[in-house]
Amino acid sequence: MHIDILKITLLIAVIITVGLLYSLIVFLGLKFNLVIQKSTVVDATGFLNIVLLFLFAFVVAIVEEITFRGADLSYLLMRFKSWVSILIISVVFSMGHVQYSGILPHISLFLFGIVTSFLVIKTNTLYLAIGLHCGWNFANSMLSQYFVLDSKTSPHWGSTFELLEIGILILILFSFWIYTRNQVLLKPTIEHSNL
Asked: Span 133-137, mean pLDDT?
C-alpha cells in the first residue's frame, strides 16, 4: 500500500487551518456578543475528551465525505454537469443533517457542501474535503464545550452565530476559487516557457 506523504500533510494542514479559522470566528463572535463564554474549566479528563472529540470528528468526516462526495457526487458527475451535481449534493447534504433546526444552519451546511464538492472536483481527491470536514466538526465540538455558540437565536432562522460560519465558508470558497482560477491561467504560460 502506497502512502502519499504530501496528501497526508495537506490533510493535517487543512484540519489545523480550519480549526484556527473556526476559532477566529468564535472570537469574532465574542467581540460582537454573538457568543458567550461558558464558565467551565478544563479538568484532568480534558485531554482524553479532546482526543475522543477529534477521533469522532475524524470518523464522521471520513464517512460523510466518502458517502456524499466520494460516492454520491461521483455518481451525479457521470450524469450531470459539475455545477448541477454540486448543487444537488449540497442540498442532499444539508437536508441530511436533520438534527439542526432553522434556516441558517441549513444555509451553512449547503455552503459547506458546495465548498467540499468544489474541493473534490478541483483536486480529484477526498483528502482536502476530509481535512476541512474534520477540522470544522472538531472545532465546532471543542468550542461548543467552552462557549455558548447560539446565544442569540430566532426560532425559524437559527443562531446568529451561523452568519459568521456562512461568512467564513464564503471566504474559503472564494479563496479556493481564485487559487484554482489562477492555476489555470498560469498553466499555459508555464507550458509555453518550457518550449
From this structure: 89
